[in-house]
Amino acid sequence: MTNKKALTLMEIIVSVVILAVIMVGLTNLFVAGKRHLQHARAKMTGGELGRLFLDPLNMAVHQSEISVADGGPSPNAWPQANNPLFAGTKYCDSDGGHTQGFWCPSQAERTLGNIEYSARYTITRNSPINNLNKVTLNVTWTEPQ
Length: 145
Description:
Radius of gyration: 29 Å
Shape: rod-shaped
Oligomer: single chain
Number of domains: 1
Helix content: 25-40%
Order of helices and strands: HEHEEE
Strand content: 15-25%
Largest sheet: 4 strands, antiparallel
């Protein structure tokens, strides 16, 4: 009578294949989790940088206290010369074809973790409530692959 407590080659190969399939699945899970984490981090950073893009515009806010009846400017008489809040679309990015305003943060300030964040401002005049301009800010970036 022989004692057969050893593993056969076939059992070893099957267990290695099962282990390999499990490891590949776990590796894919960790890689996908890392990508998701990087995307979430970039998205949070973009939201936080919105303040960096919007803060310089605070100095351009103007509301006339003199009424038209007193001979003052109309309620929508925002100063146009060099006012970044005058209606239109403005950019803070690296595109040479876009006009960069003096209020835009420098490229170094907009670059974090090798990701450059850009902004596009859309300013709309004559909103439903008089004497208000609406500023829409879109912060964009390209994530590394």
